[in-house]
Amino acid sequence: MDPVGVAAAPDAGPGPAWRSKCPWGAPNTTSISCSLADVMSEQLAKELQLEEENAAFPEVVAVAEGPFITGENIDTSSDLMLAQMLQMEFDREYDAQLRREEKKINGDSKVSISFENYRKVHPYDSDSSEDEVDWQDTRHDPYRADKPTTTPRRGFIGKGKDITTKHDEVVCGRKNTARMENFAPEFQVGDGIGMDLKLSNQVFNALKQHAYSEERRSARLHEKKEHSTAEKAVDPKTRLLLYKMVNAGMLETITGCISTGKESVVFHAYGGKSATEDKVIPPECAIKVFKTTLNEFKNRDKYIKDDYRFKDRFSKLNPRKIIRMWAEKEMHNLTRMQNAGIPCPQVVILKKHVLVMSFIGQDQVPAPKLKDVTLSSEDMKKAYYQILNMMQQLYKGCNLVHADLSEYNMLWHDGKVWLIDVSQSVEPTHPHGLEFLFRDCKNVSQFFQKGGVAEALNERELFNAVSGLNITADNEVDFQAEIEALEKMNEDHVQNHGKKLSMFSSDGDPPIYDE
Ligand code: ADP
Ligand code: MN
């Protein structure tokens, strides 16, 4: 009986009057005549049901005859079958990709590896003759061991002195070889799986360890790409941090990028509401995201490595943590400056490598850098004295040397100079602290002397004025040599008398939030 006939059978009952009125017309199938006894027969009912089921779920037949594969004679009336077809199609695509990978890896090599075990559709399901060969090759591989014997639950087979336990060396060795199939496809195990290899537990464990670490390594490589903070864009983790700040209402909106430097990206944001009463979030904020691309930071090691405040921590940290430390350092230094009354951004919050501070500027327009602004000679003179004063404050009041002070890191806002970018600032007793100070002095002197401020001290005078030291050398080379000698003396002193008391934890820093 054909399936259409079966489906039509129940409709065969009504007479010709009904059939002529039917809006879909008369079915063009001939009805099957059967007696009342037949209709009532349990035997017939069972047969009909069976055939109906077969029509709806023909998977048993399908695999053998291959309607999924050839794409012909497909009955699309069953959802299950459609789903199976789609799955099969998907699996076949997956396998095709796998086959390409396999080919790529094996190339012309005499020894090849097989991805057979990772296929979704097994060769006997497939109509490709190529697969047939593969299938036969591996199934009847002369080297292939018999299927590894499985030990029953009780842990041994055999009787008396023929007992073989699950710890048997040969059984274990074969099992271990077979277990290599579980390694990731990229992990090249050669055709060892096919041979009657007996891997000792020790060798297998070493291989397994290696396979896993390889997997992790490739995952990490992928991760690295994700993590690097590219030009203007931020990596997904940073984005999540920023998103959380907005979501918590702390920031209203992040409007855009103000600056992309080698080491940081700075964004502008409108401040939101603080979770705590005592803290007020400024109406406009600057978000400094320290770049997580590591190589740029290598040459900054010298600032932090020798900073005794970080000494104990530096050696134990991975590069990612060191970058967070830059952000942390900027936060602490800004707080010290704030406490000393030096005009600088106010810290709002630090989260990992993201530092939120008050925005110097207005309506999304950042205050210009001193190098970009044209000041009247009066303002220029005012700016100079202010900076001289700030440098002294920084040195004496904050126990800090800026270490990157120049017209690039000073903003002109509200008729005065604001200091920014203090992540690299160090204490004067840093092994190179005085050299950094001298460099700062050179930048400042040059800028103001070129800018026409007649009163501007030269770099050596400025250095002495800021540090309170009295280095008398009258040329740069000698001056530099004396500075280095002082640093050396200080270093020896620290060596002999132990570390200085850290001022690090006593400057009333804001809380560090972490998950
Ligand atoms: P970098 O290490 O990249 O030089 P900076 O801290 O100097 O980082 O910031 C880069 C630029 O971003 C600055 O030159 C300034 O234009 C802008 N900027 C940084 N912080 C602020 C701030 N709080 N308010 C306004 N602009 C800022
Ligand atoms: Mn800068």
From TrEMBL:
EC number per UniProt:
2.7.11.1
> Which organism was this protein described from?
Balaeniceps rex (Shoebill)
Provide the top EC class.
transferase
Catalyses which reaction(s): L-seryl-[protein] + ATP = O-phospho-L-seryl-[protein] + ADP + H(+); L-threonyl-[protein] + ATP = O-phospho-L-threonyl-[protein] + ADP + H(+)
Which cofactors does this protein require? Mg(2+)
Protein name according to UniProt: Serine/threonine-protein kinase RIO3
Q: Please tell me one Gene Ontology term that the record gives under cellular component.
A: cytoplasm
Q: Does the keyword field hold Metal-binding?
A: yes
Q: Which residues form the RIO kinase domain?
A: 223-468
Q: Which GO terms describe its biological process?
A: defense response to virus; innate immune response; ribosome biogenesis
Q: How does it assemble?
A: Interacts with CASP10. Interacts with IRF3; RIOK3 probably mediates the interaction of TBK1 with IRF3. Associated with 40S pre-ribosomal particles.
> Where are the stretches annotated Disordered?
123-160
Q: Which family does it belong to?
A: Belongs to the protein kinase superfamily. RIO-type Ser/Thr kinase family.
Spell out the Pfam families in the cross-references: RIO1 (PF01163)
Basic and acidic residues: compositionally biased ranges:
136-147
Where does the protein end up? Cytoplasm
Picking any one GO molecular function of the record gives:
protein serine/threonine kinase activity
The primary gene name is Riok3
Keywords from the named record? Antiviral defense, ATP-binding, Cytoplasm, Immunity, Innate immunity, Kinase, Magnesium, Metal-binding, Nucleotide-binding, Phosphoprotein, Ribosome biogenesis, Serine/threonine-protein kinase, Transferase
- Matching PANTHER family, A to Z? SERINE/THREONINE-PROTEIN KINASE RIO1 (PTHR45723)
Main localization of the protein?
cytoplasm
